[in-house]
Design a protein that fits this description.
Largest sheet: 3 strands, mixed
Low-confidence stretches: none
Strand order of the largest sheet: 1-3-2
Radius of gyration: 21 Å
Distance between the termini: 39 Å
Number of domains: 1
Number of strands: 3
Mean pLDDT: 95
Order of helices and strands: HHHHHHHHHEEEHHHHHHHHH
Shape: globular
Structural class: mainly alpha
Amino acid sequence: MISTEELIETNPNLYKIDRELHQLVQKIELLDYINPINIEQEKRHFFGSKYNINPNFKYKKIDFNAHRLQQALFSQDIDSIKDEESRKFYREVIYDYSGLIQCIETIGKGKKFYFNALKSFGTPTDKDVANAQFILHFNDEQFDQEMFPVFNSEDALGYFTEFSKKFKFDYHVKMSNKISAAAMVQNNTQTLFLKKNHRFSANQLKVLANHEIGVHMVTTFNGLSHLLKIFHNGFPNNVETQEGLAVFSEYMSGCLTLYRLKELSYRVIAADSLRKGFNFCDTFDLLHNQYKLNREESYNISLRAHRGGGFTKDYTYLTGLKKVYNYYHEKKDLNILLTGKVNIDHVELIEQWKRKGMIGENPYRNFAFDQNNNQSKTIDFILENLK
């Protein structure tokens, strides 16, 4: 890899813009703001109302000036980047970050947020919904002892600590009752959040370790290691690739179950319900009464879809998984997708930068990618046949 001095000498404007964007976008972490701060209270009210009163979610206040940040983004002299591909890429970056700022500043503002989320994340297509329905028609697996939720968040912390030893990177861990997932990684602070009162099954601990540590933390720390900070801050539309890669890590490590695939399918159904104008109660009713999903899971999936005012991101776990699964079966290099918060559509550009020495080798890898430990023929059949 070339030195910082050499990068400045050969690509001065690209380096300058990359650094300036790095300074600007520290606050643009959508997951910091999108999770309601009153999840548990609203859950109690919703269940108390016999599922008839939509939750009234509250959100963390934005601690940056969105308008000023937009101005600073669009004042970047992108045209001064001499390489055409890199110039086109950084122009995309500006529009992507601008869209995320618009998402953040409209959180909790109903349709305003929903339309901004559509611009940034899209919505499930009829094909995506058909894929979800295809998965849901499979009969449930026999109940396995590994699926029984017997571990608390302290147990989970011990498990993740042990699992992380082989990676040799240090990150922070915080307990929280203000996240909608059982665990999540915050990229800009290298923090793993665990849901405080959640009960984890043995399978879920494996799933989350391979998903959150094996991919999200690995791409965070790999991204930090490169001279170009865009690898840490995130490529345009990187969520589908990142989540697809994380679920693929579950598959390769042998802990992806039909139950988990069905969970991801229900998320697609919930995201699609937004397009039909469903409110929270409608989506919950669809999952709980029509699909016969238990009320806890129905609530959590509805929450994920309706937070902010309508958040469609969740359908990308399944579409991303299919893309990464195909990529792997085409014998392509998975390691390049671990370079940072990258998008599978930009592999050629990453390889071009690598040939020029602008980025180096990844210091961290995902051990699950060393060999395929999936033993379920059903899972393989499903993944091969998704459209």
